[in-house]
Design a protein that fits this description.
This protein has about 425 residues and is an alpha+beta fold. The chain has ten helices and four strands; from the N terminus they run H-H-H-H-E-E-H-H-H-H-E-E-H-H. Keywords: Cell outer membrane, Membrane, Signal, Transmembrane, Transmembrane beta strand, Transport.
Length: about 425
């Protein structure tokens, strides 16, 4: 029986000594490699980049003078037939001319500024989309790493339970135990097998989603993650809050929108100024009579009602964009503070697990298992301590996942490198 005890103890020590993790069959892929891949291959990011480039082509269009016009005229005299009276009347003529619209000084420049600010906004939105997708990749990667690690825990402890079942069976066969002990151990083993099955399902779903983000073929090899390790928090909360105002992608978009609306207000005010059109025409009368030369100068006065409404609308949008920035900033700052508190709390819990709960629970399990091997303890107590130790392992893994996920979200919100 002592052989059985030491076998079970060594198996459990292997499973829990350093909160061990299953060794992957293939080489793990670093998260940084996947982040570079998603920025290069993700279709949503590509679409946003092309839209931003297209927006850059608007300014040259709106800052160019309107298209010039070429005019050809033919005036008949005495008959509707073409060229009637042309040889014998000084009123009939053939005319050619050209004209050009001339917007009021500064209108085209201000329209160009609006277009440039809009293009800047589109470019900033590319970063928002990229940050969001990168955050999703990080979340999938960390969740996958957690499932791979806990799958290893389940498999290791499935082996431990097999040994405990053999131990309980041996006790029962010599009349030192009950059949119920064997059944309880078998039930726990069945639950572990069920959890392994559920893990495989969740991992398959994550693999599919992650490959979709990376634009990989769904039939490609599954992604193997690196082991989850704790990343100490090295940045203070006040530093993170400053980084939000400086680097947060959504805040940068909001700032660009304000600049665009500022330019829009200025452009709307200038649209109230008159526009001009300059034209010139030459009229030929068959050389028997004197030719005509005509210069035209037109002025277009914008309707005040329309211009005032345009200015008012632009000003309202400017106010709304400033309030949007304030709302988003408050929201992002609150979220950063919450994540910082969560990550700090998780660090304290991880330390408690490593330095207190894990060693104590492991010692209690070993003592109970030793007593059971000497027929001084009930098997139900062995299973109870085994379950406590197993749950503790998963609590540690879950807390580690929460901690690393919080840091990943903080990176997306602040633009800082924390992991």
């Amino acid at each position: 029986m002592n052989v059985v005890f030491w076998t079970a103890a060594l198996m459990l020590a292997s499973a829990f000594s350093a909160f061990g993790q299953e060794t992957a069959a293939s080489a793990p892929t670093p998260l940084s490699q996947l982040l570079a891949e998603v920025q290069a291959n993700n279709p949503q990011i590509s679409v946003a980049e092309h839209e931003a480039r297209a927006a850059r082509q608007v300014a040259p269009q709106v800052t160019t003078l309107p298209d010039p016009k070429f005019t050809y005229q033919q005036l008949s005299v005495g008959s509707p037939k073409p060229f009637a009276g042309y040889p014998n009347s000084d009123f009939a003529y053939l005319g050619v001319g050209a004209s050009q619209e001339l917007p009021y000084a500064g209108k085209l420049r201000l329209r160009g500024q609006v277009a440039d600010r809009d293009a800047d906004t589109k470019q900033a939105e590319v970063k928002v989309i990229g940050a969001g997708i990168a955050d999703a990749v990080k979340a999938d990667y960390l969740q996958l790493a957690y499932l791979q690690d806990t799958l290893g825990i389940f498999r290791q402890n499935e082996v431990v339970l097999d040994q405990l079942i053999q131990d309980a069976t041996a006790h029962y066969q010599v009349g030192q135990g009950m059949q119920q002990d064997v059944l309880e151990a078998q039930i726990k083993r069945t639950k572990i097998v069920h959890e392994i099955t559920m893990h495989h399902q969740q991992m398959g779903e994550l693999q599919a989603h992650l490959k979709g983000l990376l634009n990989r073929d769904q039939e490609s090899l599954d992604i193997v993650t690196e082991d989850l390790t704790e990343t100490p928090m090295k940045v203070a909360s006040d530093e993170l809050l400053v980084l939000v105002k400086k680097n947060n992608p959504q805040i940068q978009v909001d700032a660009k929108v304000i600049q665009k609306q500022d330019a829009q207000v200025a452009s709307a005010k200038r649209e109230g100024k008159p526009d001009f059109e300059l034209g010139y025409m030459y009229q030929n009368t068959d050389r028997k009579y004197r030719d005509y030369y005509m210069l035209t100068f037109d002025v277009r006065f914008p309707r005040k009602k329309r211009v005032d409404a345009e200015i008012a609308g632009a000003q309202e949008k400017l106010i709304a964009s400033r309030q949007t920035l304030d709302a988003h900033l408050a929201q992002q700052l609150a979220q950063v503070q919450q994540l910082y508190v969560e990550a700090s709390s998780d660090e304290e819990q991880l330390k408690e697990y490593r330095e207190g709960l894990a060693p104590q629970s492991d010692a209690a399990y070993r003592a109970t298992l030793s007593a059971y091997a000497s027929n001084k303890e009930q098997f139900t107590h062995v299973l109870s301590y085994f379950t406590d130790l197993l749950n503790l392992k998963f609590e540690y893994a879950r807390t580690l996942l929460d901690h690393e996920t919080a840091l990943a979200h903080l990176e997306s919100l602040t633009g800082a490198t924390l992991r």
